[in-house]
Amino acid sequence: MNSTEIKDLYKQKIMQTYGRFDVVLERGEGSRLYSPEGREYIDFTSGIGVNCLGYGNESWAKAIYKQALKLQHTSNLYYTGPGVELAKELTERSGMSVVFYANSGAESNEGAIKLARKYSFDKYGEGRSKIVTLYRSFHGRTITTLAATGQDSFHNYFYPFTEGFLHAEANNINSLKEAADGACAVMLELVQGEGGVLPLDKDYVKAVAAFCQENDLLLLTDEVQTGIGRTGTLFAFQQYGIMPDVVTFAKGIAGGLPMGGILVNEKCAGVLSPGTHATTFGGNLIAAAAALEVMRQLTPELLGAVAEKGAYIRDAIKGWNCPAVKEVRGLGLMLGVSVEGVKPVDLVNKCIDNGLLMLTAGSDALRMLPPLTITYEELDKGLAILKKVLEEV
Ligand code: PLP
């Protein structure tokens, strides 16, 4: 099918829940994507932080192919190898104790919320079930994770939500302490992604961790967007000098296949006992084989390069001295560029016209989440387009 045929059929047959850009994609190579007609785009989005190894990564594709030929799925009634090998990698490299596999970010967060409530119920009984999250946070689109999300714009239409979520001001420990009355846990994105690429202050995060420890509240970090190398370490918490009790991840873990999960420390390892939580596809063999290959390629060198490339992009944009740019913020290859005098979405459309895919975040920022393997040549090409677009504002 050509681009026009795809768009026409889409309008007839798929629920119109997404505001799609006028781009049709058929294949990719490295960090470049192509339309059916061969139009090239530099990709600064990686499918919203998913395709961490870019496109056409042979070892990743072979890992999937080999596993698909052998065995694709068994249910969680039986033991299989890829998931346990992956669990060993994830726990050893994060310092956490055990993992539960899910299929998406929202589902991972749902599981983490259940775990936090059960931890408290087992120890203290009923009535200590609240969870504190932050304003401008984003934790998913299910009814419970929407309740956790601290942005009213996502809350229209869908009431009533799951009870028991309280929101506090980011970087304000007193606000968090006030909200924490009757709580069993605090859930944070260390860099708020959808909210605008807003990194939390390190001192604040340390103060939250200390408060949680003193009051036996579980500290949950939602690393769905920040995890799996995105910020230059396997997980962002590793740059914050804290050890959370629970870490959720998804997006990048399987490099483009649906997978997520919950890593927990020793204290929480036995909370979700048999029969209390499950999902049919959790730990699916093909997703796990893909994830193992992602973990194999996420070497210390690659993670170091993520930090360097992030610094390279920041320096480049700051060096343009462009009046439309207010601030460049973020960690590693999770970057936001706040702009003034122009709507981020209009800039994204102009970037598309010039052959660059970009994202927005919050109301005022462009967001970049390129593949972690992006080359400097691809970066330069994308940055040249962004510069041209910003200068034309
Ligand atoms: N948590 C965070 C921090 C996210 O950025 C997202 C998605 O953008 C989610 C949760 C939800 O993930 P998913 O769309 O895989 O359900």
How would you portray this structure in words?
This protein has 393 residues and is an alpha/beta fold. The protein has twelve helices and 17 strands. Strands 4-12-11-10-7-5-6 form a seven-stranded mixed beta sheet, sandwiched between helices. Strands 1-2-3-15 form a four-stranded mixed beta sheet. Strands 13-14-17-16 form a four-stranded antiparallel beta sheet, covered by helices on one side. Helix 6 (143-148) links the parallel strand 5 (130-134) and strand 6 (165-168). The longest helix is centred in the N-terminal third of the chain and has 20 residues, at 105-124. The two termini are 36 Å apart. 49% of the residues are buried. Pyridoxal-5'-phosphate is lined by residues 104-106, 109, 138-140, 189, 193-194, 222, 224-225, 250.
Strand order of the largest sheet: 4-12-11-10-7-5-6
Anisotropy-based shape: globular
Please mark out the parts with pLDDT under 50 across 5 or more consecutive residues, or reply none. Answer: none
Return the string of H and E elements. HEEEHHHEHEHEHEEEHEEEHHEEHEEEH
Structural class call reads alpha/beta
Please describe the structure with a list of short key phrases separated by commas or semicolons:
single chain, alpha/beta, 7-stranded mixed beta sheet, 4-stranded mixed beta sheet, 12 helices, binds pyridoxal-5'-phosphate
